[in-house]
Amino acid sequence: MLEIIQHGSVRELRLARAPVNALNAELISALDAAITLAETEAAAGASLRALIISGNPKLFSAGLDLREITGSIETARTLVLAFSQLQSRLARCSLPLIAAITGHSPAGGAVIAILCDHRVMAKGAARIGLNEVQVGLYPGETIFRCYERILGTAKAANFLTRGAMLTADEALAAGLVDELVEPEQVIARAVALGQEIATLPAETYAKTRALVRADLARIIEHPNESLASLMKDGWITAETREQMAKLLR
Questions:
Q1: How far lies 194's CA from each of 8, 99, 108, 140, 143, in Å?
Q2: What is the Cα–Cα distance from 140 to 26, expressed in whole angstroms?
Q3: Does the reported pTM lie above 0.90?
Q4: Where does 2-198 sit in CATH, by number?
């Protein structure tokens, strides 16, 4: 479900839940725990300087597991709570995070990438974006603010309300990803970037990184919408469950 691969001072956390890396509560919790463990090891003196989150060839992650969203109210609530906690973990992570976007990355997959420090994406057919509105999900203000932080208000508003899925070239032009490489080179490039970070003066890098991510931490830690209201009005509505059920037919 989650493969852990060490590349010297860089650790890769590879999503490996067949067939499409759908984010169910178990995978989300495993990723959360792996990040926590890495931070603990680094704080204890391990030579670990960066984390990569990667996926399968052609598909990074299909987003939240539709079967759990459309399951019982309690199952859906557990999933949304786990994903909310993961977002907080990513935003507050003391280690730099690199998204190796190996393929398609809609919705929840895009959220993970957005919360990373750097995004390397495969050239070609892969698309990335927050397409929640297309499937009847209200993305919420917190996710919009994270999107806005990277793209600026006009682009974020345009893309989010349409549920736009951008091609790799469009994502690069918009600033949603930092660079494009050939599909077979995505992880290697992410590793090289992590190793480059590892050569920087550690304390100075950490202070500078904390400075540029302080706004992200505030967005995540002080949401204007409660999780309860988001669940009630955006994730467990009749329209949402109807749209999701159509996708599973």
A1: 10, 11, 23, 31, 26
A2: 23
A3: yes
A4: 3.90.226.10
- Comparing C-alpha atoms, which of 13, 217, 215, 180 is closest to residue 97? 13
Q: How far apart are CA 131 and CA 138, in angstroms?
A: 10
Spatial separation of the C-alpha atoms in residues 88 and 119, rounded to whole Å: 18
Residues in CB range of 157: below 8 A, 6 or more apart: 144, 148
Condensed to tens digits (0 to 9), the pLDDT of residues 137-148 reads 889 999 999 999
Can the peptide bond before residue 106 be classed as cis, meaning omega within 30 degrees of 0? no
Question: What residues does each domain of the chain span?
Answer: 2-198
Rounded-to-integer distance, Cα 76 and Cα 32, Å: 18
Contacts of 142 (CB under 8 A, 6+ apart): 87, 219, 220, 223, 224, 225
Burial class (CB in 10 A: 0-12, 13-18, 19+), 137: buried
Please state, as a whole number, how many other Cβ atoms lie within 10 Å of the Cβ of residue 164: 18
Q: Where is pLDDT greater, at 76 or 157?
A: 157
pLDDT of 224: 82
Q: How many residues are listed for the chain in this entry?
A: 249
